[in-house]
């Protein structure tokens, strides 16, 4: 190696070290500065929930302006109403419940950064940001991290924000996020929402193709229930592969254990539910053993053996219910449950047990 090459490499190394020191200094200044306002946790420690602006706030009228009158009029409309806060959207109660959990965690662990961190992830123009900020401050929401992409898809930023869950009203973006390995779901509002707990975050999950892979659901769809029951019995002790929302249940469990460590299991502000169409005696053991093999648990497991999920969800009153099949989402909505569709697995090819016919063009 020539002296010149060595000098170049040494210079590059010094430059890299200098940048690292500068970055560390900036972080130290931000995180060590005194303030009475809660600091957002460091992303590496947090459970990061990315929500779109259209789930956090009701932007139906604004969306109509955009679709009918175009981008320029849409931005002008937002600027005209800049001081008028948006009304709450479908993910608003969920976000408030996350903040309540954070408040409880800070009481028990004042210096801990293992908290929920809520990120507003939107393809809105930056000019709309002022109205979004005003709305967030109006409702006293703790949302400090924004990503406004000016019409571009925000999906590429999800990994950079270390996202644990992404919620949107755009099913295409949700599909893209899941393909990138990020837990995601499309949120649906209901005409009349159930009254939700102010003190406990309640999250309900379907099993197959949500917490677990769709491997068993494929057996049902292609070979029928009897084959499915035999398959589940034969492989009872073989854990199912993980599904797209397993990592989010894992993140919830991590925070739950912090409360358990302080003898707060009974009063834990997070409660999780498995709400599955599986039969318990015929196909339930494999599910529970899979969770056990992962070191995870749910607070309640409801095996419905094909019965409608809506009435049970109406009793649970979750802040969010995840399912891969739209007819379960629709049934939940009808009875006032906020539901989120996970577009994953073979269930996307079926509706109410019947295969969705595709055109020749789609098959190609």
UniProtKB/TrEMBL annotation:
GO terms for cellular component: cytosol. Residues 1-45 are annotated as: Disordered. One of its GO terms (biological process) is nucleotide metabolic process. GO terms for molecular function: 5'-nucleotidase activity; magnesium ion binding; nucleotide binding. It holds the Pfam family 5-nucleotidase. PANTHER family: CYTOSOLIC 5'-NUCLEOTIDASE 1 FAMILY MEMBER (PTHR31367), CYTOSOLIC 5'-NUCLEOTIDASE 1B (PTHR31367:SF0). This is Cytosolic 5'-nucleotidase 1A. It comes from Cirrhinus molitorella.
């Amino acid at each position: 190696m020539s002296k010149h090459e060595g000098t170049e490499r040494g210079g590059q190394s010094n430059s890299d070290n200098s940048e690292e020191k500068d970055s560390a200094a900036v972080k130290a200044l931000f995180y060590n500065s005194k303030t009475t306002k809660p600091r957002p946790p460091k992303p590496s420690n947090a459970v990061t929930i990315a929500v779109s602006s259209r789930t956090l706030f009701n932007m139906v009228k604004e969306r109509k302006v955009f679709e009918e009158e175009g981008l320029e009029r849409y931005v002008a409309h937002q600027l005209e109403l800049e001081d008028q806060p948006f009304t709450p959207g479908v993910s608003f109660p969920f976000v408030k419940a996350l903040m309540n959990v954070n408040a409880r965690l800070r009481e028990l662990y004042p210096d801990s950064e293992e908290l929920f961190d809520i990120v507003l992830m939107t393809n809105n123009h930056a000019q709309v940001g002022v109205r979004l900020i005003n709305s967030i401050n109006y409702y006293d929401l703790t949302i400090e991290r924004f990503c406004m992409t000016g019409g571009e898809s925000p999906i590429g930023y999800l990994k950079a924000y270390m996202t644990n869950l992404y919620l949107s009203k755009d099913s295409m973006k949700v599909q893209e996020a899941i393909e990138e390995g990020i837990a995601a779901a499309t949120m649906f509002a209901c005409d009349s929402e159930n009254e939700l707990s102010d003190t406990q975050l309640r999250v309900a999950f379907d099993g197959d193709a949500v917490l677990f892979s769709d491997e068993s659901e494929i057996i049902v769809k292609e070979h029928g229930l009897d084959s499915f029951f035999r398959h589940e019995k034969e492989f009872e002790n073989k854990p199912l592969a993980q599904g797209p929302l397993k990592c989010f249940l894992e993140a919830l469990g991590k925070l739950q254990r912090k409360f358990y460590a302080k003898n707060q299991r009974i009063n834990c502000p997070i409660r999780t539910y498995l709400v599955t169409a599986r039969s318990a005696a015929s196909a339930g053991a494999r599910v529970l053993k899979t969770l056990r093999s992962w070191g995870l648990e749910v607070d309640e497991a409801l095996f419905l053996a094909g019965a409608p999920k809506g009435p049970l969800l109406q009793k649970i009153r979750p802040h969010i219910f995840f399912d891969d099949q739209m007819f379960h989402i629709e049934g939940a909505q009808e009875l006032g449950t906020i539901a989120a569709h996970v577009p994953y697995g073979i269930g996307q090819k079926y509706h109410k047990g019947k295969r969705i016919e595709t055109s020749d063009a789609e098959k190609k």
